[in-house]
Amino acid sequence: GGKFSENLNGLMTYDLVCIGYKGKQALLYSKKEINPGTYSVELIQTDQRQLDRELKRSGPSSQIRGIRKEIEFMKYEIKDRIRQQKNESIYQLWHRIEPFIVCGQDMNVSNDYIGPESITAPDSTAAQ
What we know:
Layout: E1 14-22, E2 25-34, E3 44-46, H1 48-58, H2 61-97, E4 108-109, E5 119-120
Antiparallel strand pairs: 1-2, 2-3, 4-5
């Protein structure tokens, strides 16, 4: 469990909306008119339609646009982190198997890019 703390005015009530993602699955918690205090939050699975409804009723449209942009950026960050982890595992594999790779003298190997295009074989049609 995480903890979020914010100084709130005790004379006012607030709407609390928590949004999370586990993979691509959206999770939501919402409670209207809360007073400053400690709350236990349990996120429940929701679909995009319910999430949109909750966002619409929770604040002005300019604030909702900002929240949606933040959600999209968070999704992008998650995808990018997965991409970076995949690239790192490929890089680690390359360095583990590199000592076992044998290349002929006329083959050009580039260390800048790991992929099938990085090895250039001699032109077999020129010898014919």
